[in-house]
């Protein structure tokens, strides 16, 4: 899994890679520019567009000059806007690429900009070399980029955005940010989403091993990390091998949450799902999910189950007794979501009963009730870490880049998912998936990671077809497709 680097670490990593690989910094820049162009030319929405590249005096500008050359050689109409006064004062690698710029590339003076036709603006003005407050001279350039009528793609980082903190001042508001090698922390903070747009990570061949020495507890979860975490089952497997799970949830008027959770667990691969419900709701669950069984009253034989999921649509009134029974009698990790979390928030003494390595899945509102309000996401991350470490629990903080906090202090940012998942019931689907993996015998850490990643991937697959018409049931239907895509059997 890749580490998420901050500030100076990003530059140190480049330097370390250069010394280990024997590659020159100019060669690395070329790899980055080629990686960007590969992504760019694969974007159908830009097919008929020319490009306007804003380049600064540092290596981010150097990337832009290399991109200008490569795109020109591929037949794209390229214009470059040099955002510096003296070409003799460029960084070494930017200078080398300035010399290599084809004569056919049109150079445009920022103060006399006029252009025609459909253009994509590529922002290579400032990268991670930004220090301190933005200079006065940068303001009109960034203002211009932000007023540009066409799509804006920032290279490495939106110009003006610092690499590790929440930003409130002026910076480029990109539609896409194509960043190199390792994601920078600032690109993953929800407060910065308006600058970053859609985030794309381009590999430039820097080994994960090279980043190991850097002190960072933040990790970035990608598709390549997933297959090795899955358990595989043999030809003679029977339904018991795939887990017997219990889901305690649902209440009159909120049975949908439980239904989604149960269906999702079945599609994730669980052998046997039992829903623990109120007597009055038997017909609903048995009709909506015929594959699931139902139980009611006190839970007779908790030891029968391999995992337990608690909370979707459960309500809070009269549930404390049942929650206490589960937490006291079920000795293995459980999954707690929604009203299960709300009860824990109200009765904090119950936290001590939650089996170690259990997985709690709050969204930001539930987090605030359970752990406390935070003034921003960085503070929330710190609180999440402390909560996980202190209570020896796994905390899945849901959102655009869901963060999994582990009891050893690591925090893993998920890369899969889409904005179309912001729809009622998505979280119930996630609870079903994580409970399912836990029941299939996955280590709790892997159950949380696989659940979160596949859930996001299901969202991407369903979102590509349904866009804002996506509903939580579509996520469930897409779970099997995620197994096909990743070749998980
Ligand atoms: N070998 C490498 O190190 C690689 C670097 N890469 C690129 O290099 C970038 C980093 O390059 P650099 O370190 O040269 O820095 P940048 O190009 O990010 O920024 C340096 C420029 O920003 C200006 N600047 C700094 N602070 C400012 C402020 N407060 N207001 C206005 N202007 C300011 C400086 O005068 C200088 O012109 C990365 O973001 C990435 O795009 C990529 O080519 C990948 C390989
Ligand atoms: N903008 C987004 N991008 C990616 N994933 C999202 C986004 N918004 C929500 N999600 C995901 O959808 C799920 C929503 O869960 P939750 O807030 O509990 O919803 P509900 O209570 O309606 O089920 C979470 O897994 C979250 O990570
Ligand atoms: K940039």
UniProtKB/TrEMBL annotation:
Residues that, per the record, bind K(+): 60, 123, 159
Enzyme Commission number(s): 4.2.1.136, 5.1.99.6
GO molecular function terms noted in the UniProt entry: ADP-dependent NAD(P)H-hydrate dehydratase activity; ATP binding; metal ion binding; NAD(P)HX epimerase activity
Keywords: ATP-binding, Isomerase, Lyase, Metal-binding, Multifunctional enzyme, NAD, NADP, Nucleotide-binding, Potassium
Requisite cofactors: K(+); Mg(2+)
GO biological-process terms attached to the record: metabolite repair; nicotinamide nucleotide metabolic process
Binding residues annotated for AMP, in chain numbering: 398-402, 427
Domain annotation YjeF C-terminal: ranges: 222-486
Sites where the protein binds (6S)-NADPHX: 59-63, 127-133, 156, 257, 313, 363, 428
Cofactor: binding comment: Binds 1 potassium ion per subunit.
Family annotation (Pfam families): Carb_kinase, YjeF_N
Superkingdom to which the source organism belongs: Bacteria
Catalytic activity entry: (6S)-NADHX + ADP = AMP + phosphate + NADH + H(+); (6R)-NADHX = (6S)-NADHX; (6R)-NADPHX = (6S)-NADPHX; (6S)-NADPHX + ADP = AMP + phosphate + NADPH + H(+)
Start and end residues of each YjeF N-terminal domain: 10-212
Function recorded in the entry: Catalyzes the dehydration of the S-form of NAD(P)HX at the expense of ADP, which is converted to AMP. Together with NAD(P)HX epimerase, which catalyzes the epimerization of the S- and R-forms, the enzyme allows the repair of both epimers of NAD(P)HX, a damaged form of NAD(P)H that is a result of enzymatic or heat-dependent hydration.
Family in the record: Belongs to the NnrE/AIBP family.
Subunit note: Homotetramer.
Protein name stated in the entry: Bifunctional NAD(P)H-hydrate repair enzyme
